[in-house]
Design brief:
With 269 residues, the chain is mostly beta strands. It has 3 helices and 22 strands. Strand 7 and strand 8 form a beta hairpin.
């Protein structure tokens, strides 16, 4: 284990081997990556690495996935923040791929992001994040080519990706996000939304919303080009066409999940 001071923040960095012993998900990802499961180019050599950094807790977290990298946020009972960076590099040789990885730096200051070498002939690199945070946390997340997943977090959240899906499970607060190319999966928990509400949209992708049986909310969903599959009775005025606005139970904060090109599925859980 070694310690670094980055942007005034004390960071604990552990080795990949020690970290793999503690995190089954990271170890599984590392094995799959090394076996080529995440490689789309078999003409180049790939190098995979996992880094762990622990930083003090804060009220807001900003993460920039840059051009290539997904973001997964998981709320837990911890007080600090655990940043798991999953690094992939590709190059003409294994040594070149490993050298590229050695040049990647993970900044965990005001904003979590990766900086690395400029593009080279037949080479590429990406960093995805799995981040464990306190359950009460405000989030500002952005990505270009990568999905965004948030689980068990309560706070003010804004997130956006261009090419990647969105997955929300057990979230609460004032939550707003979008993707241009990717599906949206929402799993609601409890009996009503806690906070201001939810507003998530996609341009090209389907929408799937899982709703507890006794949930209370104002629900709005719809599509421009796609079908609607509603797996339970709802009360509406007029016909259900491409847009649905209804009250579930005694009502509550607005839950809005929409798409432009894609189907909509609402189901009880």
């Amino acid at each position: 284990m070694r310690y670094r001071l980055l942007s005034g923040v004390l960071v604990v960095v552990t080795t990949t081997q020690a970290f793999a012993q503690r995190s089954r998900s990271a170890e599984r990802w590392l094995d799959e990556c090394r076996n080529g499961h995440y490689s789309g180019d078999h003409d180049r050599e790939q190098y995979c690495d996992v880094r762990e950094q622990t930083i003090p807790g804060r009220s807001q977290l900003r993460v920039d996935g840059r051009e290539n990298g997904g973001i997964e946020i998981v709320g837990s009972d911890r007080k600090d923040i655990l940043v798991i960076s999953k690094i992939q590099t590709q190059a003409g040789s294994e040594s070149d791929a490993k050298n590229i990885a050695s040049e990647i730096r993970i900044d965990v200051g005001d904003e979590i992001r990766a900086d690395g070498p400029s593009k080279r002939w037949q080479s590429s690199w990406s960093v995805s994040y799995e981040i464990q945070v306190p359950r009460k946390m405000s989030l500002d997340l952005s990505a270009v080519n990568g999905g965004i997943s948030i689980e068990n977090v309560d706070g003010r959240m804004e997130f956006e990706t261009t090419n990647g899906g969105i997955s929300l499970t057990g979230v609460a607060g004032d939550v707003r996000g979008s993707t241009s190319n990717g599906g949206v999966d929402v799993e609601l928990t409890g009996d009503r939304w806690s906070g201001a509400g939810l507003d998530v949209r996609t341009t090209n992708g389907g929408v799937d919303v899982a709703i507890p049986t006794s949930y209370n909310a104002r629900l709005e969903t719809g599509t421009v080009n796609g079908g609607m599959d509603i797996g339970f009775p709802v009360t509406v005025q007029g016909r259900i066409n491409r847009r649905l606005t209804t009250q579930l139970g005694s009502g509550g904060p607005l839950i809005r999940v929409t798409t432009t090109n894609g189907g909509v599925t609402l189901r009880k859980r």
